Amino acid sequence: MRGGSGSDIGTLTALSPGPSESGLYVTKIALTGVTGNLGRIAVEDLLGRAGPAGVVALARTPEKAAPLAARGVEVRHADYDLPDTLDGALAGVEVLLLVSGPDLTPGVRVAQHQAVVERAVRAGVRRIVYTSALGADDGEGFAADHGVTEKAIAASGLSYTFLRNALYSEAFVGAALAQARQIGTVTSSTGGRPLNTARLRDLALAASAALTGTGHENAVYELRGPLWTYPELAEALAAALGGPVGYREVTDAEAGWLGALAPMVRAGALAETGPDLERLLGRPATDLPGTIAALLAR
Fold it and tell me: NAD(P)-binding domain location, by residue (predicted)?
């Protein structure tokens, strides 16, 4: 963790401006992306922590968030591409979870995020919790948009919490699980070198904790899961499936989408570890067997 104290990670925010039905005062927290994978898990956890009072669900298509509205959550229309929708969406909000947009077209995501930041300042939002990515401070490759967004938030004068998420474990483990079932072998071009990923659910729960806990102001968290290797993944899949699963090295070209990341893995760029994810979760991050079990249970 960089910045902030981190000493009260996981402590639920108690009373602050914003009336609830009980007459107490709770922080008004808004979340974007509530119909997406990460946002949906985060809002569910937030409801479990504090109930619907003070929770605002922001959705590009509010109809898709109807189940949340039925549970007493205030649903508001917010479209990154329609900045005028953001003024009403952010009215009265104190803490905002800004889930990074999925559009990777050059310039689009940065413009979307900057629009949200500008309207958040106008609306009087106090803190933005942003789902960034590891490597954002380098400003290169796929993390470049995140680096620009972090700088825009920091320059806005708002308090911030940057969640630099690892790559999702499900993408790697899910692809390997499919291989194991189809051909009984897992392949990669990683050279057996370790990499860290994190389960999507863990990252979403960490976001919820950062929204509701104390000590997260102007903090940067690098959310890494446990290190693992592809040979270890093959062994874990064999144990879970109850049959042999082999492992075979292939070329980057043969490795498909993983081949684009493999040079970084072989160079050790994804082999760093850190305690931030476990601290936010208040428990160990999900390991390979746990991720496999979750995928098999779907």
Answer: 33-166
